[in-house]
């Protein structure tokens, strides 16, 4: 069987930061399968998440990936300015799998769907081992079978004890092995790894010892100021002040989860090869967001430093060039338009993301001059590839947060350890990025656009 348009295997993980891949320069972590996909395809090394209005950043981030739109134009919620926890995608917004389905693709889902069930139902023809929550123990996973009615009532759930990464991979491999339709397929595989609890099975759990794990250059015992989200669940996963040995163990466990997931992804790649469809399949690997794990004294993803907003994005197959690492700026809302361009599918009207194919063809160095991110009503970020501005706000709802600004030169200081806000060299980039951020906030519908707090830069 060979489709005229490429099949698509779309892989998305939970909490995987860009740095945590061997081929991207991590000399401790073993990721041979992801390394191989990068070597046989294209890696977009400057991809950042749009952000979120809730501590569970995965839900809005996945909505951005699947819609190619701003969360302010995508998510349901009459009081978004209150940063309520919303997983729902507006009914008039089309999703990537929905669009491919309407264009002749057979769409099949496996694993985590942290958005609403209605958006899932209109997007997929079928599915298996469907998980509609944010997290669970990896050996006690509440899942459902595909429901043709789209209701997915809680009464249909059953608990699987197979480790989540293997559970979802088993279902994905079975789909590949048994698929016989003439239509090209879109297989969506959403892992809950490497999200905590980080309890990788053996032999992976013993692969990394904390004594062999170097602390990151930006490790700190505590964050230097209140960023507006210091009391969230993730920040309570390690003691304060942060202990270096404890953080090393967290990183070791994190790496074990990633290496296990990498091996399981290899089983999907092997299944495609055995089936004889590997050459005609676009494989996409990305994540919903990154994670701090001791960097800047933080543990979670509720911040706008690079470790939390910069994600891996690898695309392999379907005629893409091999071994390219692209530095041009991109956002996770650009993933859908890029997949649509590769599969020759027309984008829905109002899509805000941009295709990254001009970077692949080297027609352009970047499709964006600046990339920006948001977090609740307490943080906003803009970066141009060299300079990065983070604006902090004091929340009018909680009183938490700080009215301040950080400025980093990412070329000289990739770990974001030296704040140049008060340095004369930072005046021009600070003013330029602040103006770009304000423009972006207005265009994307950000409720903080024009906030008086921005006047402190004047």
From TrEMBL:
TM spans (from-to): none
Alphabetical keyword list: Calcium, Hydrolase, Metal-binding, Signal
Pfam families tied to this protein: Sulfatase
Recorded superkingdom: Bacteria
Required cofactor names: Ca(2+)
Keyword Metal-binding: yes
This protein's record includes keyword Hydrolase: yes
Name this polypeptide is given: Sulfatase-like hydrolase/transferase
